[in-house]
Amino acid sequence: xxxxxxxxxLSTEPPSRGLxxxxxxxxxxxxxxxxxxxxxVTRDLHPSGWEFGGTAYFSSxxxxxxGMRVTAVTRAAAADAAALAGxxxxxxxxxRAAPATTAxxxxxxxxxxxxxxxxxxxxxxxxxxxxLPSEFVIVHLAPIMGEIGPALLGHLPRADLTGLTAxxxxxxxxxxxxxxxxxxxxxxxxxxxIDVLVLSSExxxxxPTAGIEHLRRAAVxxxxxxxxxxxxxxDGGCSEIPVRQVADASxxxxxxxxxxxxxxxxxxxxxxxxxxxxxxxxxTRWVERRWDALPPIPxxx
Length: 301
Description:
Layout: E1 34-38, E2 42-46, E3 49-53, H1 55-65, E4 69-76, H2 78-87, E5 92-97, E6 103-109, E7 112-119, E8 135-141, E9 158-165, E10 171-173, E11 179-181, H3 187-191, E12 196-200, H4 208-217, E13 220-225, E14 228-234, E15 237-241, H5 254-269, H6 272-289
Helix pairs in contact: 1-5, 5-6
């Protein structure tokens, strides 16, 4: 676990004040910057067809673009697993077998996002983590629809930094496929096992009080709020970091890209405030330009 320094001093001071030296620098010297994502890749359904999506997908590709060597444990139908490996080479996709891949449909309107999940693959079992290296630089728990349970936490590889994007633990699927918010009864188990929790205002909209409590209990909690400043909870305080205003040209995946950029920058620099600022800038560019917002995939030669 990442220790918070005695001079963290997080408060409601102006952005970046008190955040610059919160965590120790450990990553820059790592010769093999490994990144593990665990979560279901999805079929994102559109009127014209589908494309791959889900936090595990967007975060794996973003981490690769940011110079990490990525392993992704997911669950998918055989044909989709083969398509993943062919379309996104350079990432080690470990796709556990499923009759069908989790499918999601996102509809955006004036009232926000409405989601349907007509297909949900089975949750992970501890055996699904067998064969992984014993240590990664970053482990990213990236559930999309409750596929990671507390039993998995004791079987995770060691990591310099373990991050959780918890949106998928705060959802349930109705019999008609409609996605609804749910409570997080096993939050304590997860918060005791991770270093950084990332949530969005959408994730905690049904019960903001409980959501803020989760963020405060985490070693580091980060709340994204669309065009409002990002809130950072650490060492008993809360600071805000503004984001650049931008039209929501393509918001899908922006939160996943933000979290990945945060984990990578924080692990490399140990500077929480600057890492949040960098992640917010990258996520804003993502909304405007999708993959053009990220650096090209590093040449392995």
